[in-house]
Amino acid sequence: MSSARPSNLPAAAPFWMSVLMLPLVALAAVLGGWWWLLIPAYAWYLTTAMDGILGLNQENPDPETGTAQLFWHRAVTIIWFPLQFAAIFGSIWYVQQMGHLSGWEKLGLFFGIGVLSGTIGIVYAHELLHQKTPLERWLGDLLLASTLYSHFRTEHLLVHHSWVATPRDAVSARYNEGFYRFFWRVLRDSPASAWRAETRMLARARRTPWDRRNPFWRYAALQLGMLALAAAFGGWQGLLLFVFQAFIAIWQLELTNYVEHYGLTRRHLGEGRYEHILPRHSWNASHTASNWLLINLQRHSDHHYKPERRFPLLQTYGTDEAPQLPLGYPAMTFVAMVPPWWRRRMNPRVRAWRRQFYPDIEDWGPYNRGELPMPRNAV
């Protein structure tokens, strides 16, 4: 694969396509009717159609590119919180003040806003929470709070990245597990898992779970603040619309999580030991337009292999190193919502992955059922 070097605004411009969703929110809020459909149509269907036209981008940027050269790449993630804040709370205030939308039109609008805050906002939060600057981490926390999913930061950094593709990781979807069963399992298990991870970290420093350093206090304060703002701008109806968009955003996130690791497992080495994470343990996708929209999230194999890399520098892999999705995330998450269709498309690929990378494993039953031992020293 050839090497490309990001060079400020021209290279960064395609990654700003998410900003075009904001005028669609304004249009749906002002005109009502079915205009809200433009938001998911842009995020899901237009992007998928562009993938079909533009094909795959298999160029790899120079991973040694300096942060200073990535100013315009980083800028879109840094400005996103105020834009999303305005979209959510501005819409709550506007529809309540104007009173021109019916109940179903409001639900449609906030479904579209949930697509915005889930497809874009949480993806950007994911990028920001991996960074080390206080500004970026705070912006990531604020974006997660606006979808009432703040614990994702802890679960992602302390659990998912350490124990992906093992029984410890709730968001590693098992082979033959349908999305809806997976979704319920994640909603049930992830908050408690994140709490255990933080309290164990505190215990190592001889601190109690009630110590002020526990980030769950910050999570609670930020989320309560968002709920209070929604009520202040729109009363009880504004509060309900805010919660509805948050649920849609969470549904979008967990659809993506489901796709990213479905059926992929790390070899159990015995006595709770698992092999090191490799590119083969995440589904890779090099589709051009959906990687623009999702800031290279689909180069997920490299993200797990080198989680410190900023999104413009993520590498893509060939079939000899990482399993490949047939379509980008927007299309694959649509397929995932129909479990029989998903199994027809993906189960043969999982079985081929097993034959390619683990031909010596004969009994996959414990892997499929999540019955292998928990990893040693797992938080």
Automatic annotation (TrEMBL):
Membrane topology per the entry is:
Multi-pass membrane protein
- Provide the primary localization: membrane
Q: Which GO terms describe its cellular component?
A: plasma membrane
**Places the protein is found:** Cell inner membrane
* Residue ranges of the TM segments: 15-37, 75-95, 107-125, 216-233
Family recorded in the similarity comment? Belongs to the fatty acid desaturase type 1 family. AlkB subfamily.
Keywords assigned by UniProt?
A: Cell inner membrane, Cell membrane, Iron, Membrane, Metal-binding, Monooxygenase, Oxidoreductase, Transmembrane, Transmembrane helix
Fatty acid desaturase domain spans which residues? 108-333
Gene Ontology biological process: lipid metabolic process
One GO MF term on file is:
metal ion binding
Q: Which CDD domains match?
A: Alkane-hydroxylase (cd03512)
Checking InterPro entries in the record gives: AlkB/XylM, FA_desaturase_dom
From what organism does this protein derive?
Paracoccus siganidrum
Q: What is the protein's name according to its record?
A: Alkane 1-monooxygenase
What the entry lists under Pfam families is as follows:
FA_desaturase
